[in-house]
Amino acid sequence: YTKGTQYYKADCTPTKTYQVNKDLSLYAGWEEIKITKRFFIGDSRTTSMFRTVNSDSKATLAELAAGKVTIGMDTWSCKSAMGLKWMRETGIPNIESQLDSHSALIILMGANGLDAENYIAYVNEKLPEWNNKGVHVYYVSVNPCNGDYNYLNKKIDAFNAEIQKVKGIKYVDTHTYLKETGFYSADGLHYQGQTNQRIYDYIISHLD
């Protein structure tokens, strides 16, 4: 039986202490670990989103290009025209020492190259390390294009289909969300203003 937040054997010797949910609606014994830090890893689309959601901040794109920028809960490690090599050598290493069980690692990579096999290989290589730290890992879909970049959409669909099969991560499907609700891109590839904000809000709403 229980006494407070401890479990007791029949002889009333305590076994192990757990945090019990306040409303007891979930399994008693599991402590809820809240996300208090969010790390965004991305390319030019993420850089554009950074600029939109932090429009009131003094942080500049030059500072971001030099490494990373932290504003509130969010740390941004992103750079235009980058792909897997940058992610492996710079993007992830920029923030890796800060990752722990209260961290959401949010990956928005793949538009430059659309090479699902190698991105998946890298994520699978890193997952044991991230899992040992208790990091919450999210991979955000590569989002749709229009206009002159319509030709990329079949490759984007194929990329997303492979990424969402990866075990040990949580897939955030902003691609379907934008296809269903619409989006604006001045050049067919990059988003502005309201679309960037909607993508950001959708991601945040799908974190644990």
Short description:
The chain has helices spanning 44-53, 61-66, 84-91, 116-133, 153-163, 174-181, 193-205; strands spanning 2-3, 6-8, 14-17, 37-42, 69-71, 74-78, 103-108, 136-140, 170-172. With 208 residues, the chain is an alpha/beta fold.
Detail the poorly predicted runs.
Answer: 1-30
Query: What average pLDDT do the residues reach?
Result: 88
Give the end-to-end Cα distance, rounded to a whole number of Å: 30 Å
Structural class: alpha/beta
Biggest pleated sheet: 6 strands, mixed
* Count of distinct strands: 9
Helix content: 25-40%
Strand content: 15-25%
Task: Give the count of helical stretches.
Answer: 7
N to C succession of SSEs: EEEEHHEEHEHEHEHH
